[in-house]
Amino acid sequence: GDSVTQMEGPVTLSEEAFLTINCTYTATGYPSLFWYVQYPGEGLQLLLKATKADDKGSNKGFEATYRKETTSFHLEKGSVQVSDSAVYFCALRRDTGRRALTFGSGTRLQVQP
Amino acid sequence: DAMVIQNPRYQVTQFGKPVTLSCSQTLNHNVMYWYQQKSSQAPKLLFHYYDKDFNNEADTPDNFQSRRPNTSFCFLDIRSPGLGDAAMYLCATSRDPGLSVDEQFFGPGTRLTVL
Predict the structure, then answer these.
(1) What's the confidence (pLDDT) of residue A98?
(2) Looking at the partner chain, which of A43, A51, A106 has a beta carbon nearest the beta carbon of B100?
(3) A84 phi and psi angles, rounded to 5 deg
(4) Which pLDDT does position A1 carry in this prediction?
(5) Which residue from B minimizes the CA distance to A91?
(6) In angstroms, rounded to a whole number, what is the distance separating the alpha carbons of residues A10 and A19?
(7) What is the rounded distance in angstroms from the CA atom of residue B72 to the CA atom of residue A48?
(8) Taking residues A3-10, what's their average pLDDT?
(9) How far apart (Å, rounded) are the C-alpha atoms in residues A41 and A57?
């Protein structure tokens, strides 16, 4: 079945450091890929998405590129801020059949001043 | 602003006492979803409604039920909560899963405590 694997956290960085959170997936066909962010005590917010191979999703300084050949969708940001501290979820959604989101287990990011 | 609203944000119930969580949306979306998220885990889909059509996930316990009386509202009923049902319950909506890109919009969640 479909699955999403994320690097385990927590990831602790100093402010202005470079961020990478790895995400790989297993799915048939050509799924759409998403990164969601969950701030403490809140629901999930869509951060960025990509719907086909080589697409780059970007938002608020975060980027991720849909790599079909490596089945990956790694999240990156060049300079993190304290306000980026949150849990980040990678997710996929099939292009056919079952359309529900399949989430990874989440990666907690802690940014220190 | 169009949004997904969940009430209450925090709910405490007793072991075995039925509880209902509510979700409403102003997005006029066709689909409404309920997810269960336990501490430090990924959200897990329980079921969803596509209009009035109920779709249950195969591994959702019978203890969990849902109602959607109209487009705007959807309820999650837990008939006999156990300690293992303590979790964050997330409601989400989307326009139509048949679309090539169908974004899900999430509410803030209801954190359920079972005593």
Answers:
(1) 64
(2) A51
(3) -85, -5
(4) 81
(5) B42
(6) 12
(7) 26
(8) 91
(9) 26
> Could you tell me which residues come within 8 angstroms of residue A54 by beta carbon, excluding any fewer than 6 positions away?
A65, A66, A67, A68
What pLDDT sits at residue A54?
A: 94
- Cα–Cα distance, A102 to A98 (Å, whole number): 10
Of chain A, the end-to-end C-alpha distance in Å amounts to 41
Give the residue carrying structure tokens 């509202």: B73
From A32, A44, A105, residue closest to B90, measured CB to CB: A44
Peptide bond into B97 cis (omega under 30): no
The two structure tokens encoding residue A105: 């287990």
Could you tell me the strand order of the sheet in which B19-25 lies? Answer: B4-7, B19-25, B73-78, B64-67
CA distances from B48 to A28, B8, B53, B79 (A): 22, 20, 8, 18
Which residues, given as ranges, of chain B have pLDDT below 50?
none
Closest CA to B108 of B41, B49, B48, B37: B37
For A63-85, what is the mean pLDDT? 97
- C-beta separation of A37 from A86 below 8 A: yes
Number of A/B CB contacts below 8 angstroms equals: 49
Residue B48: in which H helix or E strand, if any? Answer: strand B44-50
Distance (Å, whole) CA B4 – CA B24: 6
